[in-house]
Specification:
Layout (H helix, E strand, L loop, with lengths): L4 H4 L7 H13 L5 H18 L12 H28 L1 H25 L2 H5 L1 H8 L3 H22 L7 H23 L4
Helix pairs in contact: 2-3, 2-9, 3-4, 3-5, 3-9, 4-5, 5-7, 8-9
Length: about 190
Amino acid sequence: MDYVESVTFVTRDEKWVQKIGLGALAAFLSFLVVGGLALAGWAMEAYRRVIQGADEKLPGWEGWTAFLADGLKFAGVTIAWYIPVAILGAIWDPLGVIASIPVAFLIIGAFIILAQTGDFVRAINPVNSWNLLNPHLNQWIITAVIIWAASFVASLVGSIACGIGILVTTPWLCVATANLIGRTVIETGTEV
């Protein structure tokens, strides 16, 4: 699989500067929560376009209200799953760190379930995420490691210019991650 394509596909869109710019605005508005929700939903739409084989893989922001709804579902799953992690971390920091690793991995499955079905009840059950990822576990672990590494690099690059760069790297990372997940679904034949 061409992993670089998941990062570079953004610049092939004729309106990529405008779309990433609006994503940067959403990243800026994350302090109001609404921006983060919109970015998560926007990433889900980017994922859908990959698995559907759409010509235009980078979505515009016309459907931002739908992005908010999708992002709210994803935030609900994420919060529910990280509450036990936070409790374990409050008891002893290393426990929280250890618990966060499988949760961060399984959240990929929840993202796929929500993006394809919109079924919150199905997505919130971590067993469903495990069952989705387990048949091609090695490929999904590679994908997760690439996502984590890309997140680290994006945070370093984003810290340039006193953190202003994070406004650009955050939306780019969202759609690049969604693209990579979509490409992995296609390559592995993962079915929801």
